[in-house]
């Protein structure tokens, strides 16, 4: 999805110059599944995890087939940590990626987008959830 984010019926996470259409993840079962077994993540799309409370939420890349960027955001929707171009796990045990700080939200986006769109710690996101999320 390009700058402007006009599709009001879609959940999206927007930064200064770019928006992502996102799949919203709320349940523990969906969190565990994440992007496992998907073949790709299209440009302009992401997966957005919403947690009940702030904590240090580690992520791993088990059963992933492509690299991604992972962004952790705090309760104020400010980016507090970014892991760029996180590779798929090739063998157990998988590496675990942890922010080292508390976050309430996690955004997974196509690898390289953090650099491409100059996303950085301290940037605030606007979150727009559809009625179905």
Please provide a written account of the structure.
It is a single chain. The protein contains two helices and nine strands, in the order ββαββββββαβ. The chain has a single domain, classed as Protein of unknown function DUF192 (Jelly Rolls, Sandwich), CATH 2.60.120. The protein is mainly beta and 133 residues long. It is 8% helix and 38% strand. It is globular. Strands 6-5-8-3-2-1-9 form a seven-stranded mixed sheet.
Summarize the structure.
The chain is mainly β and 133 residues long. It has 2 helices and 9 strands; from the N terminus they run ββαββββββαβ.
Layout: helices, strands, pairs:
Layout: E1 12-14, E2 19-25, H1 28-33, E3 45-55, E4 59-60, E5 68-73, E6 79-86, E7 96-97, E8 103-110, H2 113-116, E9 126-128
Parallel strand pairs: 2-3
Antiparallel strand pairs: 1-2, 1-9, 3-8, 4-7, 5-6, 5-8
What portion of residues belong to β-strands? 35-45%
Name of the level-1 CATH class: Mainly Beta
Roughly how many Å apart are the termini? 19 Å
Number of domains: 1
Q: How helix-rich are the residues, as a percent range?
A: under 10%
Mean pLDDT: 87
Q: Which CATH architecture is right?
A: Sandwich
Query: Low-confidence parts lasting 5 or more residues at pLDDT below 50?
Result: 1-8
CATH topology: Jelly Rolls
**CATH H-level superfamily title:** Protein of unknown function DUF192
Total strands: 9
Largest sheet: 7 strands, mixed
How many individual helices?
Answer: 2
Rg, nearest Å: 14 Å
Order of helices and strands: EEHEEEEEEHE
Shape: globular
Keywords:
2 helices, two-stranded antiparallel ribbon, mainly beta, 133 residues, disordered N terminus, 9 strands, Jelly Rolls, seven-stranded mixed beta sheet
